[in-house]
Design goal:
single chain, about 550 residues, alpha/beta, 8-stranded parallel β-sheet, 5-stranded antiparallel β-sheet, globular
């Protein structure tokens, strides 16, 4: 299975490296930093969308699937990027946003102009007899999920922003066009595809009201429906599945383990792996993202364990991650970046990377970048953030309370420019960036980390080397340990006669735990502290992680 020994680095082009001086990262900037990525040890880069786009949702509102937005460069630059990456044995994974197009896409504009062929590319519906919207569904970005379709008496469905019109996958012509897109990029040398919100493409042809707008019941009307599997299988068989060296991952919102197995079991011919997000909702209050309670550690452990065991039992495959472009920085959520920055970041990295699955590293994670904690709403760019800030004020939240929640949950937390050095704008650009650099960039940056006594980057290099070479970490089974412990996450990976024990302490202070006697003479593989096993106990300090290996 081509995916098991991969280490994938997620790169947000807009915020990675600006070489043109316009405050926006570009493809030339990626080329410039390939040696850095190679030094880290990764072997695939996933890049967020850089296609032509009005940028209402940072490129996830695509107006042309097979071109490069001039903001980022040209097709010639991209082709050169592929060649340069190949020199370092690094492959490229692209983001495919196939649930919706921008309303600026040629298909939507032709539909608006009255072309009935393209009108069937979208979900267009008349109002109900009482004049109300076609259904009572809510957009995931807030407000109704329907908008007027030009000057007609129809409305179009948009599960996300109003400028992102949902595609009608029931139309075979839509699916054929999307197959062409995948084949286009395969011919350009692309070796991987990440499919955005893929499990919501299966809306029914007959759309009905939900029992409660915005509820789980409403999501069930368009999430993980049976036909999604049929369409992904078709996409596989018509495009990337014709080759055995292509890596695919589906972003699966609110999915289940049962569906995760189907999406990723090789016998189903769908995807290599999936992203599930349940473990990143443990600091939501009653399922509400826009809240900021302390994270629930035992719930985090249980969810990770359930997915590890469930997927393993039936030959499914997980994508392993704690960070991405839609999530706040995990070290700001699950640790203490003020007092224990090195320990927090390296503990979290060890915990997630040594699980069963394929690890993803999000840019800046390898140097311990944190949430920026902007103090004004005007500093945020993200449309979802602004929409929900207003909704919180409408609910009667004070500005202070709303801002505290925004600081902890905004998607912009992870989209701040990469912090390369101590110079102006963190070395990202010689001009004011599109999004403000985090104010800790003079302490947290690549240049400083390289000379630090506690280099997070160097620790990641060790992690990656082990992850790519240790059979127990590549192929091994997963077994939980100390599942009920309220401060430590522990598990065992096993392959043939090798065993690896991972211990991670998620809190400050010291904690002493017992380990099975067979681990007394185990060798320490890696750790961010000095803990060793003495007899049948080990004491872990604040945010300490320790990994041991034995035979038998």
């Amino acid at each position: 299975m081509a995916v098991k020994d991969k280490i994938i680095y997620q790169l947000y082009p807009k915020s990675f490296n600006d070489t043109t001086g316009n405050g926006i990262g570009d493809l030339e900037g990626v080329i410039e930093r390939i040696p850095y990525l190679s030094k880290l040890g990764i072997n695939m880069i996933w890049m967020n969308p850089f296609y032509p786009s009005p940028q209402n949702d940072n490129g996830y509102d695509i107006s042309d699937y097979t071109d490069i937005d001039p903001l980022f460069g040209t097709m010639e630059t991209f082709e050169r990027l592929v060649i340069e990456c190949q020199k370092y044995e690094i492959d490229i994974m692209l983001d495919m946003v196939f649930n919706h197009t921008s309303t600026e896409h040629e298909w939507f504009k032709k539909a608006l102009a009255g072309d009935t062929y393209y009108q069937d590319f979208y979900y267009l519906r008349p109002a109900k007899s009482d004049g109300s919207l076609p259904t009572n569904w809510e957009s995931k970005f807030g407000g109704p999920a329907w908008a007027p379709f030009g000057d007609t008496d129809l409305y179009y469905l948009h599960l996300y922003d109003v400028t992102q019109a949902d595609l009608n996958w029931h139309n075979e012509n839509v699916r054929k066009e999307l197959h062409k897109v995948v084949r286009f990029w395969l011919e350009k040398g692309v070796k991987g595809f990440r499919f955005d919100v893929l499990n919501v493409i299966g809306k029914d042809q007959h759309l009905v009201d939900s029992q409660a707008p915005g509820s789980a019941q409403e999501k069930s009307l368009y999430t993980d429906t049976p036909i999604v599997h049929e369409w992904i299988n078709e996409l596989n068989q018509q495009t990337f599945g014709l080759r055995d060296d292509i890596v695919t991952v589906g972003e699966m919102s609110s999915t289940t383990i049962e569906n995760g197995i189907r999406y990723t079991n090789p016998e189903e011919n769908e995807l290599s792996m999936i992203f599930s997000f349940h473990h990143l909702k443990v600091d939501y209050d009653n399922g509400d993202k826009w809240s900021n309670p302390p994270f629930r550690f035992l719930e985090l452990k249980q969810i990770l364990n359930d997915w590890q065991q469930g997927m393993s039992d039936y030959n499914g495959w997980n994508a392993l991650f704690l960070n991405n472009h839609d999530q706040p920085r995990s070290n700001s959520r699950f640790g203490d970046v003020e007092n224990y920055p090195f320990q927090t970041q390296t503990m979290l990295a060890t915990t997630i990377q040594f699980l069963r699955g394929t690890p993803f590293i999000y840019q800046g994670e390898e140097i311990g970048m944190t949430n920026p904690n902007y103090n004004k709403i005007e500093q945020y760019n993200d449309i979802e953030t602004h929409n929900n800030y207003q909704l919180m004020l409408d609910k009667g939240y004070s500005i202070e309370k709303a801002m505290a929640i925004i600081q902890s949950k905004s998607r912009d937390n992870s989209r701040t420019p990469m912090q390369w050095d101590r110079s102006t704008n963190a070395g990202f650009s010689n001009r004011l960036p599109w999004l403000a650099v985090a104010n800790n960039f003079t302490e947290v940056n690549v240049e400083q980390d390289q000379v630090s006594e506690h280099s997070i980057f160097k620790y990641y290099q060790q992690l990656i080397s082990l992850r790519k070479t240790e059979p127990a970490l590549i192929e091994g089974t997963y077994t939980p340990y100390l599942l009920e412990h309220d401060k430590v996450m522990a598990y065992v990976r096993a392959y043939q006669n090798e065993r690896v024990l991972v211990l991670s302490h998620f809190y400050a202070g010291d904690v002493t735990i017992e380990v099975p006697t067979e681990w007394q003479a185990a060798d320490k593989m890696i750790g961010n502290g000095n803990a060793i096993i003495k007899g049948n106990v080990i004491t872990l300090s604040a945010y300490e992680t320790a990994v041991f290996k034995r035979k038998g």
